[in-house]
Write a structure and sequence with these properties.
Elements lengths: L3 E7 L6 H14 L3 E6 L13 H12 L5 E3 L12 H11 L5 E7 H5 L15 E5 L10 H10 L14 E4 L8 H9 L10 H10 L7
Helix pairs in contact: 2-7
The structure holds adenosine-5'-triphosphate (ATP).
């Protein structure tokens, strides 16, 4: 039987319920065997994360412990170069059977930034892309993505066939939570309880992360 594997990359600075609930709902609705949360080491498109890669990884581990089929994949942290998704997809593909399905999950904001990604036009050779609706983002897709969407999008994510090549939009419980908001709350001494799992909050408190001015 072909396996169905999902991949959600991110800075996870820190991981929060927006990531986790989306990941779980997608995994459930598509019947994924595994959904890998993959923290990036040196994200090419954004500022250096506020806390170390090891702390970000540890928080994702706390968040998914015992929450099947969510797992952590730390391969990007082992690479001594920027975290390009195309490299991760190529590596994962090399470990999978040819007919296994790979689904790359991207929030709407991340999807809109796709044309700036390294070798972005090759991504669909390795996976399907699932675009997660994000309630706090309502922009139009950039022009560079219009042709791709016209050629490759399908309306029903459950109808995605084969190992990769198509794009589908998935609707999940809208949670307008961002890591930026969580860092700001913590920096101003406010609570982030219920925005992150309790185990993540315990880790943040134990290590004094994000407190005080940046
Ligand atoms: P920041 O506020 O620091 O930019 P973030 O909350 O967007 O962080 P990332 O780690 O950059 O978190 O996001 C990883 C992936 O998860 C991206 O594809 C992003 O679009 C998606 N994502 C983040 N938050 C949500 C959310 N609340 N709902 C759906 N998808 C989300």
């Amino acid at each position: 039987m072909a396996k169905r594997i999902g991949l959600l990359g991110g800075t996870f600075d820190p991981v929060h319920i927006g990531h986790l609930r989306s990941a779980l709902e997608v995994a459930d609705s598509l019947g994924l065997d595994e959904l890998r949360l993959t923290p990036s080491a040196r994200p090419p498109h954004r500022d250096t994360p506020q806390v170390s890669a090891l702390d970000r990884l540890a928080m994702v581990k706390c968040a998914v412990a015992g929450v099947s089929p969510l797992v952590v994949d730390d391969r990007e942290l082992k690479r001594d170069k920027p975290s390009y998704t195309i490299d991760t997809l190529e590596q994962m593909r090399a470990e999978m059977a040819a007919d296994d399905q790979l689904f790359l999950l991207l929030g709407w904001d991340a999807f809109c930034g796709l044309p700036t990604w390294h070798r972005w036009e090759e991504l669909l050779q390795h996976c399907h892309i699932l675009v997660l609706q994000r309630p706090d983002a309502d922009s139009e897709p950039p022009d560079a993505l219009r042709n791709l969407l016209a050629a490759r999008s399908v309306s029903d994510p459950l109808a995605l066939q084969g190992p990769g090549g198509h794009i589908a939009f998935v609707w999940q419980t809208p949670l307008a939570v961002s890591a930026t908001q969580i860092r700001q709350l913590l920096a101003s001494g406010k609570s982030v309880r219920f925005l992150v799992p309790d185990a993540v909050l315990a880790y943040i408190d134990a290590h004094g992360l994000y407190r005080g001015p940046n």
